[in-house]
Amino acid sequence: MAEIIEISRIALHDQVVARLRTMLVEGRIAPGAKLNERTLSEQLRVSRTPLREAIKLLAAEGLVDLLPNRGAIAVKLTETDVLNTFEVLAELEGMSGELAAKRISDEKLSEFRALHYEMLACFERQDLSGYYRLNAMIHTLINEAAGNPVLVSTYKSINARVQSLRFRTNQNAAKWKRAIKEHDVMLEAMTARDSAGMRQILVQHLDNKRDSVLALMRAGDIYPLANLGA
């Protein structure tokens, strides 16, 4: 029996978007799969109108492709797509880190530190979903602390397409532990307001993510079998 997911009527649109985004990022809707409106409507207990609005917004974010005569398809990237996307993303994150180290406020630095330790707690209890949520918040905070709205919007649109791939690399214990160590270095560099150090660790972090994604793709392990949207 399909899982029934409760959604209140408060901010219904935002909740549908958030839930669908999570399903796509965590692979509960498999990359390349068609988003079945009837099944998703039943699971989320909403009509098709807010569901379709949510799908359109997620298509604008880059998580869904809207294809003629096929409908909405969860994005599935090729190796070339991954290489091209991470090449740009590494530079954007490096630039974000460099600028953020120079411009971050004391308040945002405290928030960064708090999120970091919350993320570590998720790692300790092996809560991958909670870890990834906090991880994404940290990377967003760094990007926004750079204080450049063009950089923010560019980063957001490009990062959306690889969120699900970034999530799945942490399912490998060794790679997850390495990512934690890299985040420790980020906190140290940001606290010291070391702009060169922030650029260096973020570029390295993204290069490692790229290599992890490609290794999983080549091993045939990157795309899950579960498909709750079909």
Automatic annotation (TrEMBL):
Residue ranges of every copy of the HTH gntR-type domain listed in the record: 10-77
Gene3D superfamilies tied to this protein: GntR ligand-binding domain-like (1.20.120.530), Winged helix-like DNA-binding domain superfamily/Winged helix DNA-binding domain (1.10.10.10)
MF GO annotations: DNA binding; DNA-binding transcription factor activity
Residue stretches in coiled coil: none
Keywords for this protein: DNA-binding, Transcription, Transcription regulation
Name of the protein in question: GntR family transcriptional regulator
Organism: Scleromatobacter humisilvae
